[in-house]
UniProtKB/TrEMBL annotation:
Domain of life from the UniProt record: Bacteria
Family to which this protein belongs: Belongs to the cytochrome P450 family.
The protein's name: Cytochrome P450
Source organism of this protein record: Actinomycetospora termitidis
Taxonomic classification: Bacteria, Bacillati, Actinomycetota, Actinomycetes, Pseudonocardiales
Record keywords, A-Z: Heme, Iron, Metal-binding, Monooxygenase, Oxidoreductase
CDD domains: CYP164-like
Gene3D superfamilies: Cytochrome P450 (1.10.630.10)
PANTHER family given in the database record: CYTOCHROME P450 YJIB-RELATED (PTHR46696:SF1), P450, PUTATIVE (EUROFUNG)-RELATED (PTHR46696)
Length: 416
């Protein structure tokens, strides 16, 4: 290696390290968007010292999501920046990684097909009355209280309850299983270390044992829910045992970590922009653009990852087969080339779809369900509690990929 190339590589390694520190620092927790802007202006297609390609522009991320040469790696989780031994990576999430989220065609299509039938717009629409009933019940619980935590008292129980119903997970089991999900998804964070991956492996074993038992119950006594559909599928639709258990875990996890953060981050954003909050409260017709804007403004999933299955190219950057690519979706959503004044919330914005649900083959299966939950929730919350105010500082979780709040203390105020 020439000394110039060596120096460039050292500079990139320092940039990578510095960037990660900024993104995960307290300042980063309050908002990684300044750090993203800094990166996008200096190195929108960064090749890091550890050999990762990091994309932060909207067009590049959108192109990478569409590019069939960029897929999922078979063996490793790939985009952890810290060194995690290959063997442990392979051991972790053994079943989770046999689901659609981690597979390429033709396996991907086979694994997605059966479940996709339940997430069509028509099916999701049928869930609307029960979602509304759940929202009303949770908001009833706010009435007359001096203070609530919008995470524990709304953002978490709403999606957990909705996905629990859809899958057929008994309500009494939700409290115990939900915290394991957070440990499970930790290795998808770029900051994941050996301990996080080890804990994820344990969490997966526990969740797998739970869902294997539940699927067996559903096989013997099928009900009108998604796990029964998985457990009783025949012929080409039938998944093997690990795939079935992995899919149950995936749907359960994907169904609420993310939607919790849409509700929490969205509410925090509206509280910080009173003019936009009143605009939405006064015109519920804006709800569709408002939900897209909340998804864009502070995306629940900030990163996505791909591995090159063949040589390809993004803009002027050659990407050789085997290259791991980290997509900063949250940065793409704030790209000024696509969004005017990206750091301002505008509930009527109609510029480009946010990349918050990913794109291409792996486009989020639950997008219409998440949108439905948010679209029913925000107008109800704002009209029922028009005097809602913060009761203390929000507490952000120290995580980059799954960006969300641990706590959002609020005073509901008097009802209208
Ligand atoms: C995939 C985000 C809610 C199920 C994805 C992906 C993203 C995402 C970014 C793409 C991952 C990739 O490219 O590798 C979100 C956000 C949500 C949300 C921001 C809420 C605001 C949901 C819900 C469900 C769900 C409610 C329903 C159970 C899935 C599944 C996939 C997925 C199954 C994998 C699709 C595939 O690989 O083909 N989601 N999600 N998500 N999401 Fe969501």
């Amino acid at each position: 290696m020439s000394s110039a190339a060596g120096a460039a590589r050292e500079a990139d390694a320092a940039l990578e390290q510095g960037l990660l520190e900024v993104l995960l620092s307290d300042h980063g927790a309050a908002g990684p968007y300044e750090a993203y802007r800094w990166l996008r202006e200096r190195a929108p297609r960064l090749r890091t010292g550890s050999g990762l390609v990091v994309l932060s522009g909207y067009e590049d991320c959108a192109a990478a999501l569409r590019d069939r040469a960029l897929g999922k790696a078979d063996e490793s989780l790939g985009f952890a920046l810290a060194a995690v031994p290959e063997q442990l990576q392979r051991r972790a999430l053994r079943r989770f990684r046999r689901t659609m989220l981690f597979r390429n065609p033709p396996d991907h299509g086979r694994l997605r097909r059966l479940v996709a039938q339940v997430f069509t717009p028509r099916h999701v629409e049928e869930l609307r009355p029960s979602v509304v009933a759940r929202i009303d019940e949770l908001l009833d619980g706010w009435a007359g209280r001096d203070e609530v935590d919008a995470v524990a008292d709304l953002a978490l129980p709403l999606p957990v309850g909705v996905i629990g119903d859809l899958l057929g997970v008994p309500g009494s089991d939700l409290v115990a299983t939900a915290p394991r999900v957070r440990a499970l998804v930790a290795p998808l964070e770029p900051s994941a270390d050996v301990d996080a991956v080890r804990e994820a492996a344990e969490a997966e074993d526990e969740l797998a044992a739970y869902f294997a038992d539940l699927l067996e119950v559903k096989r013997r006594r099928p009900d009108d829910d998604l796990l029964s559909r998985l457990a009783t599928a025949h012929g080409d639709d039938r998944l093997d045992d690990d795939e079935m258990v992995g899919t149950a875990i995936l749907l359960f996890a994907a169904g609420f970590e993310t939607t919790t953060n849409l509700v929490g981050n969205g509410l925090a954003a509206l509280l910080a922009a009173p003019e936009q909050r009143h605009r939405l409260a006064g015109d519920p017709g804006l709800v569709a653009t408002a939900v897209d804007e909340l998804l864009r403004f502070d995306a629940p999933v900030q990163t996505d990852g791909r591995t090159a299955l063949a040589d390809t190219r993004i803009g002027d950057l050659d990407i050789p087969a085997g290259q791991v690519v980290l997509l900063l979706l949250g940065a793409a959503n704030h790209d000024p080339a696509v969004f005017t004044r990206p750091s301002e919330l505008d509930v009527g914005r109609r510029e480009a779809p946010p990349l918050s649900f990913g794109g291409g083959l792996h486009f989020c299966l639950g997008a219409s369900l998440a949108r439905l939950e948010a679209a029913e929730l925000f107008p109800r919350l704002l009209s029922r509690f028009p005097h809602l105010t913060p009761a203390g500082p929000p507490r952000w979780r120290r995580a980059l990929s799954f960006r969300g709040l641990d706590q959002l203390p609020l005073r509901p105020g008097r009802e209208d």
